[in-house]
Amino acid sequence: MTRLLLIRHAQAVPAGDLRLPGPDLPLLPVGAWQAGRLAARIEAFGPLAVYTSDAVRARQTGEIIAAARGIPARTTPALREIDLGEWGGQTYEEITAADPAAAAWFAHPEAMAPPGGEHAQDAANRVLGQLQMLSDGHGDCVAVVAHAGSLRLAVAHALGMPLASCWRLRLYCAALSVLDWTADGPLLERWNDTNHLEGIAP
After folding, report:
1. Long-range CB contacts (< 8 A, 24+ apart) of 120-124?
2. What are the residues whose beta carbons fall under 8 Å from the beta carbon of 137, sequence distance 6 or more?
């Protein structure tokens, strides 16, 4: 069995910013604090490797975690967020005001791709393929730093859920989820755990 620590990158935009992922932004100071708290939290799991998306916010989160472990952080574009094309950096209200038909994608992301963007199934396959590779090629535990959209799509697909169900899987910044990859397939052990961020102000 390989244990995959699935981590959404730490905070890169102010709380309440409802824009869809677009610009490649660095961590905010509070995000760097979150990543430090997360690094301390996962020490008990003893990850032997850290892999991150090549987006700045994910890479910086992974580097903080890896530095605490004394190991390098390795980046791969396979862990990127779903590419939302022309919708990136806009809010749901802005997108649907310009094109009311776009609301269908948020209900059924498997039915179409955003204009100039990536199909949800392709994003799920991309990330899930990387998770499968990491489960085959490393030791007992690997930390994976990626993004809310693509991680939710990949986990929904891995568990046999409809892709539209991914929106029901809430995933906060710097949250820890645990996916055990067994001989019988993936087993979700923990989801959206933020205990390490509670009770202490940055």
Report:
1. 120/82, 120/153, 120/163, 120/166, 121/157, 121/163, 123/82, 123/83, 123/149, 123/150, 123/153, 123/154, 124/150, 124/153, 124/154, 124/156, 124/157, 124/163
2. none
- Cα–Cα distance, 15 to 30 (Å, whole number): 10
CB 141 within 8 A of CB 173: no
**CA dist list (Å): 23 to 82, 144, 198:** 13, 21, 28
pLDDT in tens, the chain (202 residues): 899 999 999 999 998 999 999 889 999 999 999 999 999 999 999 999 999 999 999 999 999 999 999 999 999 999 999 999 999 999 999 999 999 989 999 999 998 999 999 999 999 999 999 999 999 866 689 999 999 999 999 999 999 999 999 999 999 999 999 999 988 889 999 999 999 998 766 6
Query: Using CA atoms, how far apart are residues 12 and 29, in angstroms rounded to an integer?
Result: 9
SS percent in the chain: helix, strand, coil, step 5: 45, 20, 35
Contact 173, 149 (CB under 8 A): no
Of all helices (H) and strands (E), which one includes residue 48? none
What pTM value is reported for the model?
Answer: 0.94
Residue 87 corresponds to which amino acid? W
